[in-house]
Amino acid sequence: MGVRIVRTVKELHGEIGAGSVFVPTMGALHEGHASLMRIARQEARRRGGAKCIVSVFVNPTQFTENDDLAAYPRTLEADLIVCEREGVDAVFVPGVEEVYPRGVQVRVPSLPNVATEPGLEDRCRPGHFAGVCQVVLRLFEMVRPAAAVFGEKDWQQLQVVRAMVKQEGLGIEIVPGPTVRDADGLALSSRNVRLGLDERRAALVLNRALVRAGRTADPAIAEGSMRDELASSAVEVEYAVIRDAETLGPVEGSRTCRALVAVRVGKVRLIDNARWPMNRMG
Ligand code: AMP
Predict the structure, then answer these.
(1) What are the pLDDT tens digits along the chain (282 aa)?
(2) Ligand 1 contacts CB of residue 190 (under 6 A)
(3) Which segments of the chain does DSSP mark as H helices, in order?
(4) At which of 144, 177, 210 does a domain end?
(5) Which numbered atom of ligand 1 lies nearest the CA of 35?
(6) Which of 13, 30, 33, 128 is catalytic?
(7) Range(s) of the domain holding residue 103
């Protein structure tokens, strides 16, 4: 039989209608994505049997100069097997023209402040969140979900999407999914397949840095210990900071905080984050 594949908005609406629970992805699916699908199915049941939709679309507008769009892994056959195994109702695989009928230019509403907090993703990947907001808004417009599931692995993205939904008054519930890791602590990422053996070993320093930071309740000391830990490995540090978990601004009387790191290991950019301070991984 195989899972239902839908390529156009028209087909999608004929098939599903509004009010679904939606998991947007760029494909190259792994266990992290599968966990979001399980959360989506649970959410769909909670909503009295709503449909569960996964999209697979490698969005050209969120890749910046430093990223390599062509090198992004594409594994649709295997992705469909994951979606079928997880029991989703349909996989939306639109072409670029379906998503951007007016051409591939970045057009976005005003970006929420959390997207441009200094020293985070915006510094390293200028324009990235404009592309993310553009595609998420467009996918929401096409899929018309009641709820959508996003991974905590991309913590700033999760906050940007939440802020955008609020700002635009979309009324879509954003459901977070915890980060899924390999047994050795490396957060699963579609980019991990591009790591060589030594690079993969070096990448374990991200998790070690977060764990070390989590053991102290002083933000300056925590940032210092992350930098020390990262310096012990062959990675190029982009940022290693403690921020307000929601605004991603500086920690000043914050209710909840987050430790966030971004590094380059060879040609591969990796990010990770954790609740801070912590007793266990969050
Ligand atoms: P991507 O296909 O990488 O754009 O990711 C699609 C969704 O999967 C996003 O909401 C990500 O945050 C989420 N995701 C990616 N990696 C993981 C992971 N290791 N654990 C949980 N969610 C993840």
Answers:
(1) 689 999 999 999 888 878 999 999 999 999 999 999 999 999 999 999 999 999 999 999 999 877 789 989 999 999 999 999 999 999 999 999 999 999 998 777 789 999 999 999 999 999 999 999 999 999 999 999 999 999 999 999 999 999 999 999 999 999 999 999 999 999 999 999 999 999 999 999 999 999 999 999 999 999 999 999 999 999 999 999 999 999 999 999 899 999 999 999 999 999 999 999 986 444
(2) yes
(3) 9-15, 31-46, 76-85, 96-99, 121-124, 128-143, 155-167, 197-203, 205-213, 219-231
(4) 177
(5) 21
(6) 33
(7) 5-177
> Distance from CA of residue 156 to its chain's centroid?
8
What is the DSSP secondary structure assignment for residue 82, as one 8-state letter?
Answer: H
Domain boundary pick from 146, 177, 208: 177
Count of structural domains within the chain: 2
What does pTM read for this prediction? 0.96
Active site residue 13: no
- Compute and round to an integer the Cα radius of gyration of the chain: 19
CB of 156 within 6 A of ligand 1: the answer is: no
Q: Is the CB of 180 under 6 A from ligand 1?
A: yes
How far does the centroid of ligand 1 lie from the alpha carbon of residue 280, in Å?
A: 21
* Tokens read off for 73: 């892994």
Same domain, 113 and 65: yes
Rounded to the nearest angstrom, the distance between the alpha carbon of 150 and the centre of ligand 1 is 7
Domain membership flag for residue 196: yes
Which pair of structure tokens corresponds to residue 107? 């057009």
Nearest CA to ligand 1 atom 13: 151
Euclidean distance between CA atoms 248 and 258, whole angstroms = 8
